[in-house]
Write a structure and sequence with these properties.
- This protein is an alpha+beta fold and 288 residues long.
- It has helices spanning 25-29, 47-60, 69-82, 123-128, 150-154, 156-162, 203-215, 262-287, and strands at 5-8, 11-14, 32-40, 43-44, 87-95, 110-116, 130-136, 166-171, 174-178, 182-186, 192-195, 219-222, 234-239, 243-250, 253-254.
- It is 31% helix and 28% strand.
Length: 288
């Protein structure tokens, strides 16, 4: 389900009236970035953190707009209100703009905002874990959230054939991230490890790292190799729409004893508590 109103360069339009010229550099050259967050109970969850990442992506990809942090924030709420949204996925896209020759970069960038329905959570993956396919690949500009998902799109038939939920990227055996998720590992001592180089700084990753440090569990952001998978006790993914999602198999390697690690469950609960607290505090601010 798509919600009825979208935002294009300053205008909020009915979806059926929205038009994007074919000379948009996002379409012609893949020169575009995006960010994505959940709306729950009418609140854009962790909006400030998503604006931080959005601004970082804009800087890295040289796609500056004239929108301030405050304007982004108010645009989010304006779109939520006009669409009468309580629960949705919210997508922000900034492209290189309209280019008459299909290559030259204009000064004015294009900004699009849209919302769509979030699928309901299915409990089975959290109870049993998910499988990952591995591929040797490194995203261009990994610290920016670009719209380039070509590799994972091409791999969808293989993922479907193998019953894989996601694809795990590595570079010469050095683990990076999944196409839409960050990854964490739990060692035999109950300590946590996650890749720290050439990965997108996910907002859920950030919040889970906060929870781990609050509990006092040792956490190590470091280089992790595929050959270490045989010795880990557990693994989990972090993502905006999934929270903390356990992993039971990576390629042909069963993770730990093949069961969901208890720590993954407790961290998912801690993350959901953070979300709930954020929503409550944001509602209080909006009602003042």
């Amino acid at each position: 389900m798509l919600f009825p109103y979208v935002y294009i360069n300053g205008d909020i339009l009915p979806l059926e009236d929205a038009r994007i010229p074919v000379y948009d550099l996002g379409l012609l050259r893949g020169y575009a970035l995006f960010d994505f967050f959940r709306v729950i109970d009418g609140i854009p969850v962790f909006a400030e953190n998503h604006i931080d990442r959005l601004e970082n992506s804009l800087k890295l990809m040289r796609l500056q707009t004239d929108l301030s942090r405050e304007q982004w924030h108010e645009l989010f709420y304006k779109m939520i209100k006009v669409n009468a949204v309580t629960r949705a996925g919210f997508r922000v896209i900034v492209s290189g703009g309209f280019s008459e020759d299909g290559y030259s970069i204009p000064e004015k960038k294009n900004v699009y905002l849209m919302l769509h329905q979030l699928p309901e959570d299915v409990p089975t993956p959290y109870q049993q874990g998910v499988r990952l396919l591995t591929v040797d690949y490194q995203r261009d500009m990994p610290l920016a959230k670009s719209t380039n998902y070509l590799e994972s799109m091409l791999l969808q038939p293989e993922m479907k054939a193998q019953g894989a939920f996601e694809v795990l990227y590595h570079q010469g055996g050095i683990i990076r991230e999944c196409s839409r998720c960050n990854i964490f590992f739990i060692d035999q001592k109950g300590e946590i490890h996650t890749p720290d180089q050439d990965v997108l700084r996910g907002i859920t990753r950030l919040k889970v790292l906060e929870s781990i440090r609050e509990t006092g569990i040792p956490v190590h952001e470091r280089e992790i190799h595929l050959h270490e998978l045989s010795s880990v006790a557990g693994a989990f993914l972090t993502a905006t729409t999934k929270g903390v999602l356990p992993v039971d198999r990576i390629g042909d390697q069963i993770i730990g004893d093949g069961q969901v690690h208890p720590l993954a469950k407790s961290l998912h609960e801690a993350y959901e508590q953070k979300v709930a607290r954020y929503i409550e505090e944001a509602q209080q601010k909006r009602n003042r």
